[in-house]
Design goal:
heterodimer; A: mainly alpha; Four Helix Bundle (Hemerythrin (Met), subunit A); three-stranded mixed sheet; two-stranded antiparallel ribbon; 6 helices; globular; B: about 75% helix
């Protein structure tokens, strides 16, 4: 087995004989380069939305989606980002309990966002119903022309990132609970937090593009 | 140390408040002004706040350091 696995223990360690600050700087740069590469994917989807939802004589259009559901899911994701920030800050000061609490809240909120999109907005079970006059379930389907195609590509790609983000948060939460991170060394926590905020940033841009910009078309 | 943490938490609270306000303003713009440019500016503002404060992008051009 390699030297890397031979020296492996439950704590984060210096790999490849690099000093930890050098390794940390390289990790941060690598993750940001990954974000930039991912932005090409999300950027292409965004361009598709602005190109394909442009109707001659009408300008920008959008499918008629539940404004309440869009606002609610956006709020949930923003709050989850806040809890990830709190968790990361707590770990920076060595407060493991607060870190685990905050990351668990963030994971639950992330799951709520996912349920909001898949269960209510996509309406995978074909349900219908309202609360206080607000339609709970979406009607747009992937085969509903360019509206359905673009909407499901954008929300689907984003939901996939949310799902992987929740998985990462839970892995880091579990490792943190077992004492794998310290105030001085917690790249796993920082990297996961960065990833989750990135998923949040993508939604911050997608939300107006999907729900707010243009004339609603029924 | 404790002051540093308090300040960081306060910064987080402030960002959450700013994001909430900007989202409400964004919603109001969509309802009453229907301006694509304004909506894009609002979303870029929100993204910039998250990238700067939550994602600590400035750490990229700092010298080598550990977490402490």
């Amino acid at each position: 087995m390699s030297a890397i696995t031979a020296h492996h223990d439950d704590h984060e360690h210096e790999g490849h004989d690099l000093p930890y600050p050098t390794q940390l700087k390289a990790n941060r740069l690598g993750l940001w380069l990954f974000f930039i590469s991912e932005f090409f994917l999300f950027g292409a989807l965004l361009l598709a939305r602005f190109y394909l939802w442009l109707e001659p004589g009408m300008g920008q259009t959008r499918p008629a989606l539940s404004q309440e559901m869009g606002f609610l899911t956006t709020a949930i994701l923003l709050i989850s980002s806040y809890f990830v920030y709190r968790g990361e800050t707590a770990m920076e000061f060595g407060e493991v309990k607060q870190f685990t609490r905050s990351f668990m809240v963030a994971a639950v909120l992330g799951a709520l966002f996912f349920v909001g999109v898949v269960f209510f907005e996509w309406n995978i079970f074909g349900l219908s119903g309202e609360v206080f006059g607000v339609e709970l379930f979406g009607h747009l389907k992937p085969w509903d022309g360019v509206y359905g195609g673009v909407f499901y590509m954008m929300t689907g790609m984003h939901a996939l990132h949310v799902l992987s983000g929740i998985f990462l948060i839970l892995v880091v939460w579990n490792r943190g609970r077992k004492g794998s991170f310290t105030a001085e060394r917690h790249w796993g926590v920082e990297g996961t937090a960065l990833y989750w905020h990135y998923v949040d940033v993508i939604w911050i841009i997608f939300y107006p593009a999907l729900y707010l910009i243009g004339t609603a078309v029924h | 140390m404790a002051d540093g943490k308090k300040a960081a938490m306060r910064r987080g609270n402030m960002v959450l408040l700013i994001l909430a306000l900007l989202t409400i303003v964004e919603f109001a713009i969509a309802l009453y002004l229907d301006s694509t440019v304004l909506l894009l500016i609002m979303s870029l503002l929100k993204a910039a706040v998250v990238v700067w404060v939550f994602m600590h992008v400035y750490r990229l051009w700092r010298g080598e350091e550990d977490h402490s």
